[in-house]
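Appendix B, example 12.
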Amino acid sequence: MTYDSIIIGAGLSGLAAGIRLAYYGKQVCILERHTTIGGLNSFYRLRGRNHDVGLHAVTNYSPPGGKRGPLNKILRQLRFSWEDFDLSPQFGSSVVFPGHTLRFNNEFAYFEAEIATQFPSQVDGFRRLVAEIDTHNIGDLGQTWISARARMAEHISDPLLINMLLCPLMFYGSPSEHDMDFNQFVIMFRSIYQEGFARPYKGVRLILKNLVKKFKSLGGELKLRAGVQQLVTDGKHVSGVVLDDGQVLEAKNVLSSAGSAETLQMCGAEIPVDDRFTPGEISFVETISVLDQQPAEFGHNETIVFYNDSEDFYYEQSKNPVDVRSGIICSPNNFEYDQPLEEGSIRITALANPSYWMNLPEEKYIEAKKYWYDQILESSMRFIPDFRSHVIDVDTFTPRTIKKFTGHINGCVYGAPQKILDGTTPFDNLFLCGTDQGFLGIIGSMLSGISIANLHLLNTR
C-alpha cells in the first residue's frame, strides 16, 4: 500500500493535519516513535498521578459562541464542537518585575488599563503598537525575520515596559535569544494578551483523546512505537520511510513535525548552511509539585506568574545548569472549573543549559534534578507564597527529558530560530508542520498542521 500522506509525529500538529487530510478521503498514516502521543504537549502517569507535559494553558481562548480567532478556525476546520475541548478560562495572570506588576486576564481592556496605570507616559505608544499588531498579516508566508524589540522601540521608549511585555511572549514562544521575530511576537501577543488562557479540566489528554478518536473514525491509521529511522529519497523526492524495525512504508507525500534539522537528518542530508535549518538552543527545566491543598488555601490565586528579578530580562541559554533569575509559575488549579481539581499543584519553569543536562552520568543526573528543584523553588518564593510545607510529591523534567521524548536536538522547545512559514524543504514532496513551521502553542500547533495540509496537500486554504 502507498499512502497519500505519511505524517511523522503524533503531536497536536500531526494529528490535526491527519484529521484534515482524512476528511478529504486521503489515506493517511501517522507515525509515532513512542507509546504516548502528544510530543511537546503530552501527559504521563507517575506514582498514581496524572501529569501534563508542556501544557500550562491553552492560549487563543474564545468563549462559547465565538466566531473569530484561531480556536474557532480550528473547530471549523476539524469539525469539532466547542465542548470537545471543554475549556475553562483563567482566573488571572501577571508579569512581575521589581517595582512593577502587570496583571492580565482574558479581557484585553483590563490589560490596557494596567499599562495606563503602571506606565502612563507609555500608554499612547502602547496603543500605537497594538494598532500595528492588529493590522499585521501573520498569514504572509513570504515575510522575513524582523526584530520585535526594534519594532516595539518605535512606539515605546521605556525599556522596562518592553521587557515586561516580551517576558511571557518569549517564555511561551521564542526560539531566539534576547529577541524574537516580529511575526512570532504578533502571534504570541494576540494569543496571550488579546485572547488569553484557558485549560480543559482533564488537561491536555482530553484534547489528544478527541483528536485521535476523530482521526481514527475517518479511517486514519496511527502507528505507535513506529519511529522513523530514515526517509527514502532520490535527492529531490521522498518516496517513503524506513522505520526503526526496518519496515518500509511508501507515500506520495511526507509531512514531518519532527523539526527542520531533525527531518533533514532523516534524509541523510547534511544540514544546509541556511539559518532556517539551524537547531534551536532554548530549553527549560520544569518542576512539578503536588500539594496537600488547593493553592488558593495558602493565598495563591493567580493562574500564571511570569517573574524576573531585575529590570533587565536575560532570555538566553543559561550559563548555569538553570537560570533562576526568571521563570514561570503555573497553577493548573486556578482556572474557572465547575469543580476543583482533586489535588493542588504548582509547576515552575526556568531556562536551562541543555549541554549540562545531556552529558550528566545517570547518578549525577538524579542528584542534579533534586538540587535544582530546591533552587528553583527557593528563587520562586520571592514571587508567590511559600508552599513548600504542603508538597507531597514532586517530579522534574529537563532538556534531556525533552530530547528523549521529542527527538529535538538540544531538547529545544521552540525549535529553530528561523521559521519556515510555508513548510517547504529541499525535497519537493516533504513538508514541515509544527514548531519549525512557526505557529506555536496548543492552538498554534493544530493550526500549523491544518494550514500546511491545506496549502500543500489539499491545495485549499
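The chain has two domains: 2-87+202-279+417-457, 89-200+280-405. The two ends are 28 Å apart (CA to CA).
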